[in-house]
């Protein structure tokens, strides 16, 4: 994948209000966090002070605080509090770089690369998240395996296909050369048995892809 695009970073249910998680997309370190009102945010995973990962920090309302020195940033990425200098009027130039972010199809998406304007991501149908799985194989290899499935189509970073267990929507997140994460969702109303079967299908896909790379 190259150029400006929307890339899925997580299943929406995995980033609960008041939490954060670090991830990597196309080699870029990224923090995905959700404020306590439920809004998702996607930023560069680096505090501008000493470079500590923001994903190690703490969400406080609509702010996130760095673990190292407690610098606190609002939802716009601007630093609002420096605990060591409580009376300081923090310069507005101190901020964390933000990615364009949207949430649809049971996934959280970011506009890559940093600073890109990828246009509006079309709303995806309602879906039930199943699981995310990382495959130690190249993007082309994984994409070709997905395309071997029934009625498979890949548009941008989204693959849709008909599996033996029902229709799947799969967000494709390139981590780095040789590693890809798939975020898998299916139609609402799927039974527990079906969800478990999809998990087994995903695990088989991972093992097959990695075995082919190792051969």
UniProtKB/TrEMBL annotation:
Record organism: Paenirhodobacter hankyongi
Name under which the protein is recorded: Rieske (2Fe-2S) protein
InterPro entries to which the protein is assigned, alphabetical: ARHD_Rieske_2Fe_2S, Cholesterol_7-desaturase, Rieske_2Fe-2S, Rieske_2Fe-2S_sf
Keyword Lipid metabolism found: no
Protein origin, superkingdom: Bacteria
Rieske domain span: 7-110
Database matches in CDD domains: Rieske_RO_Alpha_N (cd03469)
Keyword field contains Acyltransferase: no
């Amino acid at each position: 994948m190259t150029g400006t695009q929307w890339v899925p970073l997580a299943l929406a249910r995995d980033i609960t209000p008041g939490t954060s998680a670090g991830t990597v997309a196309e080699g870029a370190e990224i923090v995905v966090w959700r404020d306590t009102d439920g809004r998702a945010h996607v930023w560069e995973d680096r505090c501008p002070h000493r470079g500590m990962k923001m994903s190690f920090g703490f969400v406080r309302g609509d702010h996130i605080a760095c673990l190292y020195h407690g610098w606190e940033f609002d939802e716009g990425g601007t630093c609002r509090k420096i605990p060591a200098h409580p009376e300081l009027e923090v310069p507005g130039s101190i901020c964390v770089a933000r990615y364009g972010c949207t949430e649809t199809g049971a996934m959280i998406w970011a506009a890559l690369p940093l600073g890109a304007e990828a246009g509006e991501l079309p709303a995806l149908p309602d879906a039930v998240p199943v699981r995310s799985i990382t495959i130690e194989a190249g993007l082309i290899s994984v994409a070709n395996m997905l395309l071997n499935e029934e009625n498979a189509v890949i548009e941008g970073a989204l693959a849709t296909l008909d599996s033996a267990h029902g229709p799947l929507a799969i967000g494709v997140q390139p981590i780095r050369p040789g590693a890809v994460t798939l975020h898998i969702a299916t139609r609402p109303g799927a039974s527990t048995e079906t969800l478990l079967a999809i998990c087994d299908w995903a695990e088989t896909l991972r093992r097959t892809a990695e075995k082919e790379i190792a051969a």
